[in-house]
Design a protein that fits this description.
The chain is α/β, with parallel strands linked by helices. Helices cover 49% and strands 17% of the residues. The protein is built from 8 helices and 9 strands. It has helices at 3-31, 37-66, 73-87, 89-92, 96-116, 122-150, 258-263, 275-281, and strands at residues 156-161, 166-172, 182-183, 186-190, 196-198, 211-215, 221-223, 229-238, 243-251. The strands form 2 sheets. The chain has a 5-stranded mixed beta sheet, with no helix packed on it. A 4-stranded mixed beta sheet has the order 5-2-9-8. Helix 1 runs antiparallel to helix 2 and helix 5 runs antiparallel to helix 6.
């Protein structure tokens, strides 16, 4: 095994170990205990897999690009390691944050191994390492912004009869329904007094970016607070002809709390009707009601 490949294997091992250690220290700081430490073993295994299957080949590729660069080799190579880690977003989605941190640790591990074989100078290497850490933090910060731009958002604008309390069901991709009106970038979905609505829109993907309003008979609207909404489940049901996609949420108009928004309430009296009954009422087949 040649010296360069051996150095990269060591770097992959060190990066995986230090990444897991840093994550463990963060969890202890955040939650005050080492509970769930078994999960760190899983994290270590995934880090090892990523560093060996992606990190080492990418680092060898970067070497082929930068082997003739002398003066600015550290900065160019470091930038490329972080860049290729960022590109992993298109493979592992939100876990690319971890890939960026692992890439920085991988690169620094390798550079420290290199300087030990040369005339070692502490100050330049420490300065470069601090620069690399700062560059990594900046990349993570910018990537959060990029993630916001790239991530899909639901952008639904619900109009719910004033005073309605209980479960709400929305059934998507109903061809006979007209295309929804829009309020800015938001698609309007009207909910009837029985707690459901049909829409021609496809089932939404991405993070929830919805707005909820009560509307009275005269068209006056009142915005519903986020704490008064509990996002429920999504799913599908079918008859002999087709599948129907739906999502649900619960709305209240008093005693709104973070706990309700997150967990809902098992004590709430719910007069809403089920998906299959809704579909039968709307003439989409016999579901046994």
């Amino acid at each position: 095994m040649n010296e360069r490949l051996l150095r990269k294997i060591k770097s992959a091992l060190l990066a995986s170990f230090f990444f897991t250690l840093l994550l463990g220290l963060y969890l202890v700081y955040e939650y005050g205990s080492a509970e769930g430490s078994f999960a760190l073993i899983i994290v270590l295994l995934f880090a090892l897999a990523g560093n060996f299957l992606y990190g080492i080949p990418v680092s060898l590729l970067i070497d082929s690009f930068t082997n003739k660069i002398v003066k600015s080799h550290f900065f160019v190579s470091g930038f490329l390691h972080i860049f290729f880690a960022f590109v992993s977003y298109f493979i592992i989605k939100e876990f690319y944050y971890f890939a960026i941190i692992c890439a920085a640790l991988f690169f620094l591990s390798e550079e420290w191994q290199k300087v030990k074989k040369q005339n070692f100078k502490w100050k330049p290497m420490i300065v470069k390492s601090i620069f690399m850490v700062g560059f990594t933090v900046l990349t993570l910060y910018l990537s959060l912004y990029m993630h916001e731009l790239l991530e899909k958002k639901t952008n639904e604008y619900y109009l719910i009869p004033a005073g309605y309390v209980g479960g709400v069901t929305v059934i998507y991709d109903i061809e006979d329904e007209p295309q929804p009106n829009k309020v800015g970038d938001y698609n309007v979905i009207k909910i009837n007094d029985q707690g459901y609505g049909l829409t021609a829109l496809p089932e939404p993907e991405g993070t929830f970016n919805n707005k909820y309003y009560y509307i009275d008979e005269e068209g006056r609207k009142e915005k519903i607070k986020e704490k008064c909404i509990h996002i429920g489940s999504s799913g599908s049901t079918s008859n002999d002809d087709r599948d129907f996609l739906y999502s649900s949420f619960t709305v209240i108009n008093s005693n709104c709390t973070d706990h309700f928004s997150t967990y809902g309430s098992q004590y709430l009296e719910d007069h809403s009707i089920g998906v299959e009954e809704i579909l039968q009422r709307e003439g989409f087949g016999d579901f046994g009601y």
